[in-house]
Write a structure and sequence with these properties.
Two copies of one chain form a homodimer.
Chain A lengths: L1 E5 L4 H12 L8 E5 L10 H6 L7 E4 L4 E3 L1 H9 L9 H31 L10 H19 L12 H10 L13 H11 L12 H12 L1
Parallel strand pairs in A: 1-2
Antiparallel strand pairs in A: 1-3, 3-4
């Protein structure tokens, strides 16, 4: 059985739940989930760092001790041989290109803005970063919108792991102060993702985080 | 023939030159290189953005108009079917994990610190970011050092594209103010990479950039 070390409100971790849902794998039957609150230091103890020196979630582990880190690499492995990572070498590399885009040009802005809004106090000095993060995040959203004007999916050959990777933080971008009103193609794509067989929604964030998000909107 | 839009001092672009060198492909015979100075706006004209809306280098283009972006996705495609991207699905995903690490946990700190030192004026407000960038960059280098204490390479099954990806900016990290003296395993690995057949060194950076780097060291 696979053990996943993950933090439920993390889009990076939720990607794995999404793909496992599409693949029909069931919690506690096909995989274990060990809640690992990376927002409160759960990836910092020496036992965790011994397994993942980079101190991040998600991480998967087998009973024989084999491990893998990096959400998008884990998606590639889990999706191997399935329609979620389909196509020839060129098409699969195009799928990977969107996954590298997600980690380099999208997540560091869209996800980090959400984290600051929902997981840091209203007087955190990190909030000074929000305008720049939102500017860069909107640049990423504009690149996505442009692609979706001409293509239904980010993955080659139909819905797949590049869509799952980009859904991870785009679907909750509003919690970071991103208004998706100006991105009709993204909104249509989010709806198409939610309609996929076996789709698993992210659980709602905790009350304290939701309150900080709400206060960030009016701050 | 493949056309590469690249900026020579960019580690992300140099990755492609390295792999093509290992594969025995020759400049102007097997591929074209169009120098695209991203540090001075060459990725901003509408003609470039029409091809790559994310406005970055490198980008590859075929004569029939097919294009691919994201340095590490291009490496995957060019290395397909060669020993530089070898192994089974698990091993290839482990190689990808290091490539996602490179783009998320290494490049935004090690490469950006180098850019600020060599490509921004000495009074640039961006220089205030350097201490934080160096702290995060050293965290990435420590993760690499730990891995290399037990493994010769980052790619599964021998030298390959994860090593090329990480070499891109590690070999010139000193230009960003990173002293590699505390990382003997990284220094040994850099030497092993340089000894690989067909290795292509990055060209020296321009005089004006080298002068800014030197002045950054004493500033």
């Amino acid at each position: 059985m696979i053990t996943i070390y993950g933090y439920s409100p993390s889009g990076n971790c939720h990607k794995l739940r999404m793909l496992l849902g599409h693949l029909g794998r069931r919690l506690d039957q096909d995989f274990r989930w060990i809640e690992t609150d990376s927002a409160h230091g759960a990836t910092r103890p020496p036992e965790y760092l011994a397994k993942n020196p980079n101190g991040r979630v998600p991480m998967i582990e087998f009973d024989d001790g084999r491990r893998m880190v990096e959400s998008n690499a884990i998606l590639c492995w889990l999706a191997e041989g399935t329609p979620y990572f389909a196509g020839d070498a060129w098409q699969r590399a195009q799928t990977l290109a969107w996954m590298f885009f997600e980690q380099y040009s999208h997540e560091p802005f869209v996800a980090v803005a959400r984290f600051i809004c929902g997981w840091t106090p209203l007087d955190s000095p990190r909030r000074a970063d929000l305008p720049k993060l939102r500017e860069r995040g909107h640049q990423a959203l504009a690149v996505m919108e442009k692609h979706l004007a001409e293509h239904p999916w980010f993955s080659s050959e139909g819905y797949g792991i590049a869509d799952i990777a980009l859904f991870g933080y785009t679907h909750c971008a509003d919690e970071g102060g991103f208004d998706l009103g100006a991105y009709p193609a993204i909104r249509g794509w989010l709806d198409r993702v939610r309609a996929q067989p076996g789709f698993v929604p992210m659980p709602p964030i905790a009350m304290e985080n939701a309150e900080l998000v709400a206060q960030s909107r009016t701050a």
